[in-house]
Design a protein that fits this description.
It is built from eight helices and twelve strands. It is α/β, with parallel strands linked by helices and about 280 residues long. An eight-stranded parallel sheet has the order 5-2-1-12-9-8-7-6, covered by helices on one side. The chain has a two-stranded antiparallel ribbon with strand order 3-4. Strand 1, helix 1 and strand 2 form a beta-alpha-beta unit. Helix 3 runs parallel beside helix 4.
Length: about 280
């Protein structure tokens, strides 16, 4: 498996992140935050420099995470993002020959990173499905996948909630950006029972682990895979059984140091190579 990393998990200066990542053998990079802001709504010169540095180093940009729909909670916000942010994202996605974009599943009213796990995603309002369907239709026309990342502040906050919205929309351009850490953050457990049924919808994977914390206790403590509550051996075995071939990226949510990234990379490799559902 050709492992990658979310570049700003090392640092927002892509050139420096690239030097650290390549020194550890990482050849795939997701672009999210850069020095001048969240891509691609940042300084275009910095995006061009990322493109140049990736080409010169011979590494692959695997995904773009512009934060689409993460903080959208009404029709006006959805319309604004589709009219102003989405076209620019598509422009750069096509320029970089990406097959998919990481997006989110619309903000639950009153949900924050501190309390999102206490705000239920059951029975999302009808407009949430309407927005996801509209966005999926637009993406299908543009020839790109929208990979919805479960996130505690959003209606798509677990594998079950995310897959239910995707299946109700019934549009093949909607898939899942699998993030077991975010799902465990939301549910305060490793919900392995929910994972296998949605494996066929996965188009991108983020890897991070976390220590258990009580519901409503805010952001958890993140650790390398295998040092927290997630059974990554099982998780990776399911992906392998599903013949998953898409990108997998480290997203440690830790300090970005060389040693931390090395620890996370080694942990992934050990768990991937010893994956089992037993």
């Amino acid at each position: 498996m050709n492992l990658g990393i979310v570049a700003d998990e090392i640092e927002r200066d892509f050139g420096r992140a690239l030097r650290v990542g390549t020194s550890l053998g990482l050849r795939r990079y997701e672009i999210r935050f850069l020095k001048s802001g969240r891509a691609p709504m940042c300084d275009p010169r910095e995006l061009l420099e990322v493109e140049h540095q990736a080409r010169e180093e011979g590494v692959e940009i695997t995904a773009l995470s512009p934060g689409l729909f993460k903080h959208v909670s009404d029709a006006a916000g959805f319309k604004q993002e589709m009219n102003e942010l989405y076209p620019r994202v598509i422009e750069w996605a096509k320029r970089w020959k990406l097959s998919g974009l990481i997006v989110f599943g619309f903000e639950k009213p009153g949900a924050t990173e501190e309390n999102g796990d206490l705000v239920s995603s059951r029975n999302p309002p009808a407009e949430v499905l309407e927005w996801i369907t509209q966005a999926g239709d637009r993406a299908r026309t543009d020839g790109i996948q929208l990979m919805i990342e479960p996130e505690p502040v959003c209606w798509a906050d677990t594998w079950t909630a995310t897959s239910a919205l995707i299946r109700r929309a019934g549009i093949p351009s909607l898939q899942i950006n699998d993030d077991p850490g975010n799902v465990a953050w939301m549910e305060r457990r490793d919900s392995v029972d929910e994972f296998k049924p949605i494996a066929s919808l996965i188009a991108n994977v983020h890897v991070k682990d976390l220590k258990w914390a009580a519901p409503g206790s805010g952001k958890p403590k993140f650790v390398p895979a295998g040092e927290g509550m997630i059974d990554y051996r099982y998780h990776f075995a399911v992906l392998q059984q599903a013949s998953y071939q898409g990108p997998i990226s480290l997203e440690p949510h830790m300090d970005g140091s060389v040693e931390t990234i090395r620890r996370c990379k080694r942990a992934f490799e050990d768990l991937w190579n010893s994956a089992t559902c037993g």
